[in-house]
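[agent] plan:
  1. take the single chain provided in the ticket
  2. run structure prediction with default settings
  3. attach structure tokens to the ticket
  4. add a short note for the reviewer (M.T.)
[agent] executing step 1
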Amino acid sequence: MSESQPGRKFQRVVLKLSGEALRESGSQDNISPEIVEGIAVQIRDAWTKGVQIAIVVGGGNFWRGITAQNRGMDRATADYMGMLATVMNSLALQSMLEAHQVPTRVLSAIRMDNVAEPFIRRKAVRHMEQGRVIIFAAGTGNPFFSTDTTAALRGSEIGADVILKATKVDGIYDADPIKNPDATRFERITFQECLQRQLKVMDATAFSLCEENNKPIIVFDMGPAGNVRRALLGDPIGTFVSA
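[agent] step 2 finished; step 3 output follows
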């Protein structure tokens, strides 16, 4: 385990949210407007301080392609359906951000011009330079790739300083903290240490992209009040993964 995290200031970040993060546990609703608003307010607070923010949101609150495959559906078709679920989540987040006066653009990897702009790398960068929050929808536009991979890919394309992966745990542990109460949390860890210890930070493709492009990852718990804002502003939080 390395030394404690220093405070840091990010200029451009990619925030990765799961679809499940937008719903209330135990609720029949796929999206909780109250939860989405709470996330939007934290993003606004960081945006007002000059952080350029891009967001990738999953679609698991509506649909999981791999689950559908396990029940007999063609995987590619199931994954395309999952991409459409991410568009719904992206539009919900955009609506709440703009309700709080944050200019936002949804950029979709699948063309749907009535609701989102097509993803064009240079246009995405320009939006951020002009002070807009951007939301990457529809994954990579290809089946068999997760939204973790989307975050790693888009983060590399736009030159983000870091990938912020919001989870339900407060970082990366040397063992499952739910099964092992003596598990130790890392504050800093290298890509190679993660591989050697077989720690599941992201799926293999996403992790490889981050390692190859020297794109740090911060894994943090988005549950406690203010943690999304803290992560966006570079406060020491969660586990910092780097070369």
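[agent] step 4 note for reviewer: The first strand starts at residue 12 and ends at 17.
[agent] ticket updated
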